[in-house]
């Protein structure tokens, strides 16, 4: 292979031998040798490495763009889920069916229009990488759905039921979006605050039985979560919400006692005769 650097060096030495005053020409030849050597080092980079870096750059750019779309979808879910919660709070003993029908219709619209966007963006394993981007919206959605379910049936909406609702929105060829248990529990902790507001409102309207039912339900949630939270690895957010949840429980209890409800109607915080956890619908909690 022809060596340009070696040839120019020989040419420079020959010119210097024939012309002792040719230092300018020698300087020019040396500069040419340096440029060629630099060019040779640049051209020595493997094409496969360039392609690899180009692919990584494309992947990161695409992931960042997807994160922005996921954040936007999460904000839309949060905003519209709050509207569902406000709608449920309009419920009274005179308009219960009408209000709940409207709230459930609005919740279905949130699922079809906004949760579906999130599901499409998070096909495959991206829902693990981008959890921080969509978690606030999912928690608000769980809060709204659980609030509707309790006001309609008096029971808890389980995690399996929520994931079953999202299953038809996913592409069957890819791994579907599955809401993880941490986001479910965080959303469940938030719904106790809404139940506290509803209980106090029902007491004001004279619906003491419904307020008592809410009190028992919220105490059950708090009791179960006090058993689960200490075993959670990433529970910093949850521990903060547990303090808020305890305040909600105490406010409901104080409101109920203020109208002279009998203390024997309240379930114990711990040591219930029933085994298992009503939160997750399983026979025994495994830690």
What does this structure look like?
The structure is a single chain. Helices cover 72% and strands 0% of the residues. With 287 residues, it is mainly alpha-helical.
Low-confidence stretches: 261-275, 282-287
| Radius of gyration using CA atoms only | 33 Å
**Biggest pleated sheet:** none
> Roughly how many Å apart are the termini?
69 Å
Strand content: under 5%
Percentage of residues in helical conformation:
over 70%
Shape: elongated
Question: What is the count of helical runs?
Answer: 10
Structure classification:
mainly alpha
In round numbers, the mean pLDDT is 79
- The total of beta strands comes to 0
Q: What series of H and E elements makes up the topology?
A: HHHHHHHHHH
Layout of helices and strands:
Elements: H1 4-18, H2 23-43, H3 47-88, H4 96-121, H5 126-129, H6 131-153, H7 159-166, H8 181-204, H9 208-228, H10 236-258
Helix pairs in contact: 1-2, 3-4, 3-6, 4-6, 6-8, 8-9, 8-10, 9-10
List keywords for this structure.
287 residues, mainly alpha, 10 helices, 72% helix, elongated, disordered C terminus
Kindly summarize this structure in a few lines:
72% of the residues lie in helices and 0% in strands. The protein has 287 residues and is mainly α. Residues 261-275 and 282-287 have low confidence and may be disordered.
């Amino acid at each position: 292979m022809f060596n340009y650097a070696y040839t120019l060096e020989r040419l420079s030495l020959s010119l210097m031998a024939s012309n002792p005053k040719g230092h300018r020409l020698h300087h020019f030849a040396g500069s040419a040798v340096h440029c060629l050597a630099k060019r040779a080092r640049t051209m020595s980079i493997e094409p496969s490495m360039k392609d690899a870096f180009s692919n990584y750059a494309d992947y990161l750019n695409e992931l960042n763009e997807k994160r922005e779309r996921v954040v936007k979808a999460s904000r839309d879910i949060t905003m519209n889920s709050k509207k569902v919660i406000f709608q449920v709070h309009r419920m009274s003993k005179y308009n219960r069916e009408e209000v709940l029908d409207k709230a459930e219709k609005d919740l279905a619209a949130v699922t079809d229009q906004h949760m579906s966007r999130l599901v499409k963006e998070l096909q495959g394993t991206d829902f693990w990488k981008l959890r921080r981007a969509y978690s606030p919206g999912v928690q608000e959605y769980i809060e709204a759905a659980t609030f509707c379910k309790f006001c309609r049936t008096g029971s808890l909406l389980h995690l399996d039921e929520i994931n079953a609702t999202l299953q038809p929105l996913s592409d069957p060829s890819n791994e579907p979006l599955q809401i993880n248990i941490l986001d479910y529990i965080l959303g469940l902790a938030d719904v106790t605050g809404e139940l506290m507001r509803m209980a106090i409102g029902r007491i004001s309207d004279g619906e003491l039985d419904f307020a008592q039912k809410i009190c028992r339900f919220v105490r059950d949630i708090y009791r179960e979560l006090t058993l689960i939270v200490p075993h959670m690895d990433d529970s910093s957010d949850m521990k903060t919400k547990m303090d808020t949840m305890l305040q909600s429980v105490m406010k409901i209890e104080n409101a109920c006692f203020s109208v002279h409800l009998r203390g024997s109607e309240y379930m114990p915080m711990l040591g219930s005769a029933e085994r298992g956890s009503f939160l997750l619908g399983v026979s025994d909690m495994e830690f």
